[in-house]
Design a protein that fits this description.
This protein has 151 residues and is of the alpha/beta class. 42% of the residues lie in helices and 15% in strands. It is built from 7 helices and 5 strands; from the N terminus they run E-H-E-H-E-H-H-E-H-E-H-H.
């Protein structure tokens, strides 16, 4: 007898809405965003970061984001992508990563909330051997960062 509002991406799964309706809830679904590669996405920037080893770990909070990331890159970019550590928030995401060919196996957070993701990232980082190379900041590659918008 409750009214439930589900906020999700366009074309999201029906599982939750169907189950809540089956249990007697009045379900309203609001699709708030599209699960697609942004029109201005530049695969060359991402490929440069990946090839340079500038990204310590990637996070994917949906299978669509993981698929879009994979599809954005060509075969060469995918080689670097698939060898970059990955954190996912569900067993389905971990299975998709394995299917896509991820090496090493993805890190699985206990949930999709901020605290679970941060805890999983902290545990992942603590499990790595701390050396000067693993501790230095590698996130800025000046030649690959687009110029700032002056507006």
């Amino acid at each position: 007898g409750r009214c439930v509002l589900i906020l999700r991406g366009e074309g999201g799964r029906e599982l939750l809405a169907d189950e809540l309706a089956r249990r007697g809830a009045q379900v309203v679904v609001a699709e708030l965003y599209r699960r697609a590669v942004p029109p201005g996405a530049d695969p060359a920037v991402l490929a440069a970061w990946l090839e340079a080893g500038a990204l310590d770990v990637l996070t994917a909070t949906s299978n669509e984001s993981l698929t879009n990331l994979f599809d954005l890159l060509d075969a060469r970019g995918r080689e670097s992508l698939l060898s970059t550590p990955l954190l996912v928030v569900s067993p389905r995401g971990a299975q998709l990563a394995r299917t896509l060919g991820w090496r090493p196996a993805p890190v699985l957070a206990a949930g999709a909330d901020d605290a679970a993701i941060v805890a999983a990232l902290a545990a992942w980082r603590a499990s790595r051997t701390a050396t000067p190379d693993t501790l230095r900041s590698r996130c800025v590659i000046p030649s690959a960062i687009p110029p700032e918008d002056p507006t």
